[in-house]
């Protein structure tokens, strides 16, 4: 059932939620901000951080498109045949991962990375195994 106009009003979510309340992959921590629980129906928005010198498992995000704005550090996204190709983003960069693309996120550096992560239509994470 659709929300009435009175139920749909701008509101503030104070700080991110617990990592345990959203899907995760190893070596990255996602903290939810705007989610279905906060009233969103078409977007997931949160904070993400990646540990230094860590590589996550192969995964994809189903029908969800992913966008990230890097606040600090660097993230590398491997993709393609055998995950041999990659792009790397640093502070001030925007990163886009199309829907259904199998990929691996990595932080090959000695400092963690932090970013703002948006995904739509939801925070879909399909881990493929190591």
Structure summarized in a few sentences:
The protein is built from no helices and 11 strands. It is mainly beta and 130 residues long.
The CATH H-level homologous superfamily of the domain at 44-127: Jelly Rolls
**How much strand content do the residues show?**
35-45%
Q: Under the CATH scheme, which architecture of the domain at 44-127 would be assigned?
A: Sandwich
How helix-rich are the residues, as a percent range? under 10%
3D architecture notes:
There is one protein chain. Helices cover 0% and strands 42% of the residues. The protein has a domain at 44-127: Jelly Rolls (Sandwich), CATH 2.60.120.10. Strands 1-2-10-5-8 form a five-stranded antiparallel β-sheet, with no helix packed on it. The protein has a four-stranded antiparallel β-sheet with strand order 3-9-6-7, with no helix packed on it. By secondary structure, it is mainly beta. 22% of the residues are buried. A hairpin with a 5-residue loop joins strand 6 (75-79) and strand 7 (85-89). It is built from no helices and eleven strands. The radius of gyration is 15 Å and the shape is globular.
Produce the secondary structure layout.
Elements: E1 28-34, E2 44-50, E3 54-55, E4 59-60, E5 65-72, E6 75-79, E7 85-89, E8 94-97, E9 103-107, E10 113-120, E11 126-127
Antiparallel strand pairs: 1-2, 2-10, 3-9, 4-11, 5-8, 5-10, 6-7, 6-9
Which descriptors would you attach to this protein?
single chain; 130 residues; mainly beta; Jelly Rolls; 5-stranded antiparallel beta sheet; 4-stranded antiparallel beta sheet; 11 strands
